[in-house]
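Q: Hi! First time doing this. I have a protein sequence and I read that you can turn it into a structure. Is that right? Here it is:
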Amino acid sequence: MKNKIFSKGWFKDLFCVFIKELLWSNMPVVAIFIWGIISVYFFPDEWWIISLIGSIVIVVLFFVLTYLSERKKS
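A: Yes, that's right. Below is the predicted 3D structure, encoded as structure tokens:
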């Protein structure tokens, strides 16, 4: 009975993969939202350009880190 299909390790791996994928896919959205709030608070006159630049940087970093992560797997 050692080879159970639904073992404790299986549930742990499933939970860790789910949380990792959930955080990885939503992290850029959260970072852009937080950066937008920070730019409005600290730079009320030029918040739109700072938000735009920050959003572009976050999206580029996300794509670069995704590429490096996939390259590391293979």
